[in-house]
Amino acid sequence: xxxxxxxxxxxxxxxxxxxxxxxxxxxxxxxxxxxxxxxxxxxxxxxxxxxxxxxxxxxxxxxxxxxxxxxxxxxxxxxxxxxxxxxxxxxxxxxxxxxxxxxxxxxxxxxxxxxxxxxxxxxxxxxxxxxxxxxxxxxxxxxxxxxxxxxxxxxxxxxxxxxxxxxxxxxxxxxxxxxxxxxxxxxxxxxxxxxxxx
Length: 198
Description:
It is built from 7 helices and 9 strands. The chain has helices at 19-37, 39-53, 70-75, 77-81, 121-132, 150-155, 168-174, and strands spanning 4-7, 10-13, 66-69, 87-91, 107-114, 138-143, 160-161, 180-181, 195-196. The strands form 2 sheets. Strands 2-1-7-6-5-4-3 form a 7-stranded mixed sheet. β1 and β2 (10-13) form a beta hairpin. The longest helix has 19 residues, at 19-37. It starts with a strand and ends with a strand. Residues 44-55 have low confidence and may be disordered.
């Protein structure tokens, strides 16, 4: 079953894949094809898998939406710039958002990794991307993300959330829990406008 997430308040299948996921899909496909073709094809599948795993090799489905880490993007920018499909980058808490600014038009997805409940730098990364650099694509929260964080994440501009499967429906409902706010914020991750009280 494909991975699901919350995107713009709806539960949807996630089309994005990491390079490792694309390689695993290609290896699985090669192995299934080899079984069907017999022992001679197994050798060819092994060679194809070795080529895929080689440094600098493009993932098999180079037209698929590809989600990279900041380290992958920053160390192999030229390689990934040649990718034919959509590109996205996930930032770790210590990654400098400013380093992505020249490439923002190239990205359809940017995200923040939340490694634990005490890590809040992703909220700032989201606000900077939406408010300072006007990023209009998908802004994803992933890692340790729970339904009770969604409203605040949405107020910081996030519109996509990777949640445990058991929390998807509750998370969808949580996004519509509040109708008013006292503090101004970037509410672009919310489906409806909030009333602002003073």
